[in-house]
């Protein structure tokens, strides 16, 4: 037999639920920032989301260790922006950067490999307009000419302006730089633009020098420098080999020697404004070995150029005017304040172990985010209002218990959302709001199951008081099965889905679990309290929406034979 409602002790259940709510909101107000606001996604508050897709030189899958290392470096770069609420997460082979607010444009450049190296300039030629596709690539200059450069002194370097400002998408050589269609584009570009034959083994050997010059002319002719063109060698150039690349905003083509100082030898980088030159610069400090190498190079190569190469892009190619000792130097170019700061931040935090393509970049304005949040709240309010009207019309006083249970469920869900955003960085987005709205129906469905079981018991002729424990015993199995199916579906969807769909699945699954808490600790105890109430108003079945089924139960009960008596049967 099911236990009677009097044995339930509903006060204990309600007190336990109240304790849960008090503890949750104590954590909300007295831990972390103390603000009772959930963490919102960029589609609700505005911001930028950038998805970076990793690529490897051999086209294979990147290792998990390299992805984690790249995520940590990008996260450090993001923190350098100084915007609160930023997030960097791994999503398969992608790294997703989320920056709320208006400063998200800087996040679009955080995926740069930032592979810096210093190389000697062998020669440089002005870039000429590309020939039509049908014409042979023979329009390269027959003899290299030295690009003009400005003198450097005082421990600094002033040279060719940056090929592309660090704060924007790099303008890099085109994808058709001497590549064969059937080859890996990185390997094909290396075969032409990083061929060992670009430099003679013995510079004094005239035949080797002539062969190297011919190879340089061929590589320069095959190189296409055009704005917004992808360079397969970006972040994938070999430091020990010469390099043919672009610079000077695609105005100059360079032939560079092997890298003699890698970016890992940089100990610090800071942007600043040079009052004498009237331009923004980036101050570099080398580590011990790097500072010695730079001093030796500048001492032995006065009058020659040194190229600062960032992701195969020559950002500065100064002419050495005197020996630069002490381990400090400068990168100059036509930088804006933002460009200089971005470049300094990227160099400061190190280069990435992988190169990335920006496969998606989404920016949502704060106005649109607020409109989306408002629309989500209105949709949720409409859903709640419809459920409230239905419950009041169909269940009356029981409907009021349903509304009260939904309000308490909302308080519980809100506190959990705030704490999850604070503890694990969970952000509520539009998809999550949709999951919460659907969860309203799941929670209301549990109440409907319970109340309809009560009606079934009353139809059998039982009183409301005796129907409550029996109806609950039958309803809870159905509620558990229903919520288990919903939670399992949400869990599977969360595992196999990516992006916004995961937010929908998460809030749906979380709300399903909290639905059980509310039904067990609030709804059933409240119904049990009403069933044992001595108030005539509360115990009146008509006020509970049970008047019709009680009449039907009374009719069925009156037609049943009394216990121990048989119905009279006439014999034919």
Automatic annotation (TrEMBL):
Its main location: membrane. Signal peptide: none annotated. Residues 136-151 have a biased composition (Low complexity). Pfam families: Sec_GG, SecD_SecF_C, SecDF_P1_head. Residues 125-183 are annotated as: Disordered. InterPro entries: SecD (IPR005791), SecD/SecF_arch_bac (IPR022813), SecD/SecF_CS (IPR022646), SecD_SecF_C (IPR048634), SecD_SecF_C_bact (IPR055344), SecDF_P1_head (IPR054384). Residues 250-353 form the SecDF P1 head subdomain domain. The chain crosses the membrane at residues 12-30, 368-393, 400-424, 430-451, 479-497, 503-527. It is a multi-pass membrane protein. Residues 358-531 form the Protein export membrane protein SecD/SecF C-terminal domain. It is found in: Cell membrane. Gene3D superfamilies: 3.30.1360.200, 3.30.70.3220, Multidrug efflux transporter AcrB transmembrane domain. Keywords: Cell membrane, Membrane, Protein transport, Translocation, Transmembrane, Transmembrane helix, Transport. Belongs to the SecD/SecF family. SecD subfamily. HAMAP family: SecD_B. Forms a complex with SecF. Part of the essential Sec protein translocation apparatus which comprises SecA, SecYEG and auxiliary proteins SecDF. Other proteins may also be involved. Part of the Sec protein translocase complex. Interacts with the SecYEG preprotein conducting channel. SecDF uses the proton motive force (PMF) to complete protein translocation after the ATP-dependent function of SecA. This is Protein translocase subunit SecD. It comes from Amycolatopsis halotolerans. The gene is secD.
